[in-house]
Specification:
Helix content is 43%, strand content 20%. With 314 residues, the protein is an alpha/beta fold. It has two domains: 141 residues, Rossmann fold, CATH 3.40.50; 163 residues, Lactate dehydrogenase/glycoside hydrolase, family 4, C-terminal (L-2-Hydroxyisocaproate Dehydrogenase, Chain A, domain 2, Alpha-Beta Complex), CATH 3.90.110. Strands 3-2-1-4-5-6 form a six-stranded parallel β-sheet. Strands 7-10-11 form a three-stranded antiparallel β-sheet, with helices on one face. A hairpin with a 2-residue loop joins β10 and β11. The N and C termini lie far apart (39 Å).
């Protein structure tokens, strides 16, 4: 019996393929690339291509394409990308009617095949989709998270590094709230190797960077005609790696709030520590009054779309 970890990727599209490639290269475990029956051959073909790539790059991870939930059984980590990606002109909220039935179907598969997995949701609208998956599965909040904050923070970090003309390695940024146009870049927690970013970048430039960060996903959709996939996949793998290797990294992630930051029964991006037990701690920052107001606005937006999802007939 294999002692390798098992990682199930639900959705074999652009993000799913990049997720599989990253997990294999890092040798985090064997990979199951799952998609619907109509795309089963596509998933098998992509898995075979990636396995052959291992002969070139020198990784030994087994990668299998499938449409059978039985192949996902016992997965340690499940990353969900299933759903329709955004197209130009669409908001994340526009995807609700299409993606809610998909996420419910995935939740039912998870309950039967992967009841003990650590689950990372990427599907949009992110905060509402991860809420619905947790509600449908009944999994504990420690094991169901949404990938958004790592990606949004990475975009923020890149724009800051370019403006300050410094290495992106030295930029530390934190973006909280919902994964949408009301996300909250936290300037009070944004530094360049310990130096507040506000000391190195003028306020008007910071404001422009914040505005660009908030529409960072839409910028790529307009350019490519579909959603980003390299950076989202890397962000999700960073979360999975922290869980699988018990790294206890402090990362922004969409988690179920039960009173933290003053919000209950809501998924929203906040700083958390991810380790071998899943979400091991939620960190409550001392936000400025302006940051609290922005977070409240973001929470209102998240609540609105979550309410739509909750009211969507089963």
């Amino acid at each position: 019996m294999s002692t390798r970890k098992k990682i199930a990727l639900i959705g074999a599209g652009n993000i799913g393929g990049e997720l599989a490639a990253l997990c294999a290269r890092k040798e985090l475990g064997d990979v199951i690339l799952f998609d619907i029956p109509q795309k089963a051959d596509f998933a098998r073909g992509k898995a075979l291509d990636l396995e052959q790539n291992g002969s070139v790059l020198g990784y030994d991870a087994a990668i299998k394409g499938t449409s059978d939930w039985a192949d996902c059984a016992g997965a340690d980590v499940v990353i969900i990308t299933a759903g329709i990606p955004r197209k130009p002109g669409q908001s994340r909220d526009d995807l609700v009617a299409t993606n809610v039935p998909i996420i419910r179907n995935v939740a039912d598969g998870l309950k039967s095949a992967c009841p003990d997995a650590f689950v990372i949701v990427i599907s949009n609208p992110l905060d509402a989709m991860v809420y619905e998956l947790k509600r449908r599965t009944g999994f504990p909040r420690e094991r169901v998270v949404g990938m958004a904050g790592v990606l949004d923070s990475a975009r923020f970090q890149l724009f800051l590094s370019r403006e300050a003309n410094v290495s992106v390695k030295d930029v530390r940024a934190m973006v909280l709230g919902g994964h949408g146009d009301d996300m909250v870049p936290i300037l009070s927690a944004t530094t360049i190797n310990g130096v507040p970013a506000s000391l190195l970048i003028p306020k008007d430039k910071l404001d422009a960077i914040i505005a660009r960060t908030r529409v960072g996903g839409g910028e790529i959709v307009k350019l490519m005609g579909t959603s980003a996939y390299y950076a989202p996949a890397s962000a999700a793998v960073a979360m999975a790696e922290s869980y699988l290797l018990d790294q206890k990294r402090l990362l922004p992630a969409a988690v179920y709030l039960d009173g933290e930051y003053g919000y209950k029964d809501l998924y929203m991006g906040v700083p958390v520590i991810i380790g071998g037990r899943g979400v091991e701690k939620i960190i409550e920052l001392n936000l400025t009054d302006d940051e609290k107001a922005m977070l409240a606005k973001s929470a209102k937006s998240v609540q609105g779309i979550t309410d739509v999802v909750k009211a969507t007939p089963a």
